[in-house]
Structures are given as C-alpha cells and as structure tokens.
Amino acid sequence: MNERHLRIPAADGFPLAATVFEPTGGAEQVVLIVPATGVVRRIYADYARHLVQAGFAAVTWDWRGTGESRPGSLRGFEASMRGWGRDDLAGVIAWAGSNLNGGMTAVAHSFGGQALGLAPNAGAVRRIVTIGSQIGYWRLWPASVRYKYALLWFLVLPILTRLAGRFPSRLFGLGEDLPRGVALEWASWCRSPDYLGTWSGHGALRAPLLAIAFSDDIYAPRPAFEALHARYGSSEKSLRWIAPAEVGRDYVGHFGFFRKGLVPQVWDETARWLAQR
Fold first, then answer.
1. Whole-structure pTM over 0.90, yes or no?
2. CA quadruple 89, 93, 94, 100: dihedral, nearest 10
C-alpha cells in the first residue's frame, strides 16, 4: 500500500491538503471520501486503508479553512459551504479523473452527501455511498431537541461568528472551527425548509445510491436522512437505517462508521457494493 500526501487544486486553484491511498499494483476503481463539516481527513484514514485492501484507491482531503487546508488565521478568510462543493469537490473530481486510473466512486459523510449535488462535474461519479447524510433543516429534528438547534442556528452561531470572525465549533462539540462564510451559510440553510434552495444538482445525479445511517445518530434523524436522499435522481436507490444492535454494538452514532473495527461488516458491505459494475 502506498500513501502520499499532496495538494490538490480546487476548481478555482486553491490548494487542498489531501492524501491518496493506493494498492501497490494499482487499482481499477477510485473512491473519493467526501468529508463532513469540520471533520479533518485523518478521521477517514482507516476506512481508506480498508478500501485499499479491497482493491480500491482512495482519496481524502480537508475542505478549505479546515485541517491542513486552513490558513494561520480564519479571520477574513473567504470560504463557503456551497464553494466547498462547487470548487473544492469539483477540483478533487477533476484531479482524480486526470491523475488516477479506474472508474470513480464516492463515499460521502454527512455534509458530503449534500456536497455531491453542488459539484458541477459530479456526474463523473459512477456509484455513491452516503453515511449519516441529511438535510439540516431544524424542524426535521425530534421535538425534544429541535428548539435547541433552532437556538443555535437563529442566535448563537450568527452572533458568535460575527463577533469572533469564525465559528468556534469546538466549544459545541461540532468539530473544527469554521470560517465565517461557511458558518453563516450553514446557519442560513438550517433555518430554511428549502435548505440548499435548489436541488437541481442532486436531481441530475443518476449514479446508483446506497445511503446508510444509524438509528442512534443524533446528527442525522430519520426524517432528515430520508429528505436528502429523496432529492437524488438515482434510479437505483437503497436506504439502510441500521440500529446499533443489528451490528452487535451499543453505540455507533455519527462518526462510529469510520472507527476501525467498530462495524467491519458494514465496511465490507460498502466495499462489495462499490465494486459492482
């Protein structure tokens, strides 16, 4: 197995910190692991290595403004969630198509499942797996917690972000601190029942889709999970809503899928599904 760290140019030229995982003898398919909001690429490394053992190449990266794609200071740094899909993801797709051999597939975590519909060249992706992906509109959350999220999206995040010049996500257990534009756009989407505003990009996707979520995932309740995947234009579509007990676990949550050894049977399921022609 070979692992190499490099910079991949986004569609607008911004250099994204990335890692390419490849089997020594080469691969017939490439898997883009599309990251969640505020999640650095090292979280996905063990899953990427598992895919390499199954014969794939895999690519991970940090969205601009996060991880090793972050500047010294986020104050005044320009970035947006829509730009993550339109420019960052589109750049990775273009780079992989030009520099790696084999058909292209994607495993998208959380926001990654939203980002796919924002990349104008996402039609190059032949098969899609999403993990814990959803629409973030606050009313899709259970009544017991939705008003807590409403407080975050309507007041706390906009106020803190404007005061600090970034959103201090770490204080709320929401991952990496986020650039101002990313945070304010995220809050705006989560306040709106239309969320992204337009779903034409998702509707245009025709790649077969396997969507997986776990019933104990507080960041992807079932109505939000189903609402996102209803927007996909895939003619072949399978939604898997998994209780942790079904895979022999007490807890999986939003990030557990990517923990080495936690749900190996689901790792194998995704690899077999991606390998289908």
1. yes
2. 140
For residue range 126-174, what is the model confidence (pLDDT) as tens digits?
Answer: 999 999 999 999 999 999 999 999 999 999 999 999 999 999 988 887 8
CATH of domain 2-137+198-272: 3.40.50.1820
User: Which candidate, 45, 92, 84, places its Cα nearest to that of 65?
Assistant: 84
